[in-house]
Amino acid sequence: MVLKFINEQMSQIAVNYEFDEWTSDIVYPYFVGEISEDEPQTEDGAETATVMLTGFHRGKYIELEKAKEKIKKHFEPITGLRAKTDSGTIAVFFAGAFNIPSGEADLKKIQINLKVKTWKGVI
Question: What residues have CB less than 8 Å from 9, skipping those under 6 apart?
Answer without folding.
Answer: 74, 75, 81, 92
